[in-house]
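As promised in the previous annual report, we have extended the structural survey to additional targets. Below is the entry for Terpene synthase N-terminal domain-containing protein.
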Amino acid sequence: MRRQSCSIRSSVNVSWNAMITAYVAASRIREEIFDFMPDEDGIDSAVAALQDPRVDPLASQPLDVVHRKAAISRCLGGLNPSELSIRIPLDRFHSTPITLLYSLEGLQDLEIDWQKILKLQSKDGSIFNSPSSTACVYLKTKDKKSLQYLQKTMKHQNYAVSCHYPIDLFESLRVVDTIERLGIDLFFRDEIKAVLDNLYSFWTNEGIGWGSTCIVNDIEDTAMAFRTLRMHGYSVSPDAFNQFWLPGDKFCCFVGELSHEVSAMLNLYRASQVDFPNEEILTKTFKYSHDYLLNVESSHTSATKKNLMGEVTFELANPFHDCLPRIYNNAYIKHYSIDDPWIAKTIYRLPLVNKKVLLELANRYAQQCQSYQPSELKILVKWWHSSHFEDIPSTRFKANINMLPYIYYVICATFHEQEFGPLRLFFTKTCCMNTLFDDILDSAKSITELDSLQNMIESWDTSFLSQKEYKIIFQEFYNTILVMTKMASKINENLSPEFIHKYLLAIYAKLIKSGITDARWKIQGFEEYMENAEVSISIATHLLMGILFCGDPLTEDLLNIICDGRLLKLGSIISRICNDIQTYKVEMKLGQSFLVI
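The corresponding structure token record, generated without further manual editing, is:
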């Protein structure tokens, strides 16, 4: 069911005053957050005026890399940089874009052919998007393209050069991912679409790198881009991960290298869960990243990102398909840090990704979403008491008023926006009535009792019912459908009230009949029940009801297509099997098991 948070019609009589504060906050940061794509024309014009072209900006300030050699040696396990040729053939520097090219300033003692290094130059003139490596190459070759890159970089960053530039894809991916995980993406839909369109233009069958001019792809950016693009409906192939799969059933972060990072494996794990059938590489990806993260969690590995291990623990305990949106958002709000360091050759920060105002907006919006819940719960409690459910003998059902908040908060975790109030109320009411009805059927003792229910459903005439509990439940079912019809007809102007009423009666009659059929089989000993059970699980019923309250334009033909759709059928079957897996042990003890696997 596609949700349109801002398209629901004003006839629903929803007040938007409570949203003003959050929208103002969103407007305040929109331009600041999403204005990180460099304008090439602006950069070129700025470079032209940077300085007198006769003056070499680097001539009077040669790079001093002596102080870095000891640190590089320690990172290499005590190996002297001049001895690298023993382990790594020098011709790899000249022909293969490997990560050591990122730190050429620390490898000047090697007998490097600097002219050959220029063959690995990016189209923007950089070497591995590294200003320091590019500066080193410029000192050795006086290459004009390298100088132009350095001038652009210095101008763009106000003469404070970072350890790598550009990282536009890396940064934009993390901004979008952060906003979505914080649950505030509804405020930035147009901006996110623009960012993803740009990102998709750089996607290849070999993945993606951290910058639009980067010649090396890495597994973390590839995983994040794959997941984000696929979740937004872009066509991306998981074959991009094949190049990172090494002999010996291992993944690497960069092609041909053996390094691992917790953050990269976490994003790989998240990406592996948005798979389609028969995507074998994602099956391998899931197992490898899952096992890696389990080992990291059990070994209490530390991480530079303050709450990274908390994220790992939560992701392992709450797989993507098992976690409701607002539960995930609220957990990420707790883990989100505004002062996380990022480590490359230097420790640096990403102010667009780790931003205090994003956290403030997320907290404000979460509080706003929760502000209307007490009043809606009061409405539900009042409805429960007025419906006389408490007059039903307790021997006939186990459900009671305590189930109201449980059902209500389940739907709140998915449809949390204020305008979906009618959907939350009707969903909770019908779930409660269906639970009561299911409990009563579980205690049915005769075929005659079930026959009277069957006759009632054909006409929705409660005079067929002799038992008080049935009359109470089905009278409230019918009354609720009348109220739903009135509300849905205001939202869906293309549908007549008569059609909506017949539509709702039909889907609930189908659900109730399936429950009666289950009860008949229970009494008479039938075992095969899947065709009926996919209806009695009630997933289709609640979806077909809920779609009327989502604000999307609907027609009678479209609703009929949805009702008969294969997607709805498959979703119901999956839900039924998942339910049976959880309940079959209890039902077997009671002699009521209908598990079909």
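Strands lie at 245-246, 250-251, 342-343, 347-348. The longest strand covers residues 245-246. These points will be discussed at the next consortium meeting with the crystallography subgroup.
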